[in-house]
Structures are given as structure tokens and as C-alpha cells.
Amino acid sequence: MNLPFDLSFSRQFDQDLEEILDYLLKEASEVAAKKVRDEVFKAVETLVDHPERYPSEPLLAKHGNYRVIRLRKVPYEIFYRFTGTEIFVIRIIHSSRDLKRIFRQFKP
To answer: Where exactly are the structural domains of the chain?
Structure first.
């Protein structure tokens, strides 16, 4: 498959997703974990064709063109940077978390 943009994931995104799925497997069910995983990757797939589809993230604006996907079916938000040629997915965070606190110490 030839992608129009380079797509990559931060270690932090990988760690976030692993922690989320582990938590859901322990505290909810395999079905819940699968639903989140599927929704995350379905949303990420849309980035390849339409990286500017999602809104800019004001908390990260001073660092560049950071955007956020607010998932509809599960309570998570995916944060990514779009440079014009590259999509770099940086975090996935539960929507109830304090994003100001989380991103206060953000270093691109």
C-alpha cells in the first residue's frame, strides 16, 4: 500500500494504547478492549487520506500543527502532528483526563 503521507507513532502513543488495552482487559472485557483498539485504528486510517480533517489542538498550538481526533464511540482523544508530508501520532488520552496538566510539560 502506497501512503500519500508518512505515518508514524510515538513511543508514548504505543505506551498509552498498551496501558488502555491492559486496563480494559483487566477491568472490563476483551470485547471492550477490542472495541477501543478497532476505533483507534479506524480513526488513524482516516488520517492518511485527510490529515487536515480534524481540528487543531489549542493546547499544543505553540508547538506546531497539532490536531486532535475525538473518537465518537469510545471516550478517547488521539493527538497528532501534521507537517504537510508527515503524520506523527503522539498520544491517546481518555477524554476525562486533565489535558492542560498533561500537556503543560509537553516537549515536541
So the answer is: 6-104
pLDDT in tens, 13-43: 999 999 999 999 999 999 999 999 999 999 9
Answer whether 0.85 is exceeded by the pTM. yes
Contact 40, 78 (CB under 8 A): yes
Tell me the CA distances in angstroms from 92 to 2, 4, 14, 84, one per residue in order. Answer: 25, 23, 9, 21
Backbone angles phi, psi at 93, to 5 degrees: -135, 140
State which fold the 6-104 domain adopts: YaeB-like fold (3.30.2310)
